[in-house]
Amino acid sequence: MTAYRFPVSVKGVVLRDGRVILLKNDRGEWELPGGKLEPAETPEACVAREIAEELGLRVSVSGIIDSWVYSAKPERPVLIVTYGCAELTQGEPVLSSEHEDLAWFPLGDVDALRMPAGYKRSIAAWARQLRS
C-alpha cells in the first residue's frame, strides 16, 4: 500500500473587535495568513513567523482549531492546519508582496466570502472559543 504525502500549510486565525483579518491570494480567494513549514520549525513558530512576514503583526499561538485537505489545484492537495492566535500588540497590518489585498472582515460577513469552507469553519470555531 502506498502512503500519501501532502505538503503542510499552517494558518492562523486573528480576531480583533469582532473582525477577522484575511488576505486575498492570486486565485481571488480570501485566506488566513500562514504558510509552509520550514525544516526543524514547529507549526506554532511557523504560524507566528508567517503572520509577522505577511502582515507585520506579532501574535501568540494557541492550540489547533481544525485540519483538512484542500486542493486549490487538483493535482496538488495540501494539508491545512489552523491555529487560534492572539495579537501581542495591536499594530496596523502591512500587506506583503505575497498577496493582493488584506482586510478585516466582520465575523457575520465571513460566510459570504469567496474562501475555502475549512477557513470559515476555523474562524467560527475560534470565535466560539474566545466567547466561552
Tell me what you see in this structure.
By secondary structure, the chain is of the alpha+beta class. It contains two helices and seven strands; from the N terminus they run ββββαβββα. Strands 1, 2, 3, 4, 5, 6 and 7 form a seven-stranded mixed sheet that branches. The longest helix is centred in the C-terminal third of the chain and has 15 residues, at 117-131. It starts with 7 loop residues before the first strand and ends with a helix. The mean pLDDT is 93.
What's the arrangement of secondary structure elements?
Elements (H helix, E strand, L loop, with lengths): L7 E9 L2 E6 L5 E2 L2 E3 L6 H13 L3 E12 L7 E10 L13 E6 L10 H15 L1
- Please give the radius of gyration in angstroms: 14 Å
How far is the N terminus from the C terminus? 44 Å
Q: H/E order of the elements?
A: EEEEHEEEH
What number of structural domains do the residues give? Answer: 1
Percent range for helical residues?
10-25%
State mean pLDDT (0 to 100 scale): 93
Helix/strand/pairing category: alpha+beta
CATH superfamily: Nucleoside Triphosphate Pyrophosphohydrolase
- Quaternary state of the chains: single chain
Helix segment count? 2
Low-confidence stretches: none
Write down the CATH topology: Nucleoside Triphosphate Pyrophosphohydrolase
CATH class: Alpha Beta
- The amount of beta strand, in percent, is 35-45%
Number of strands: 7
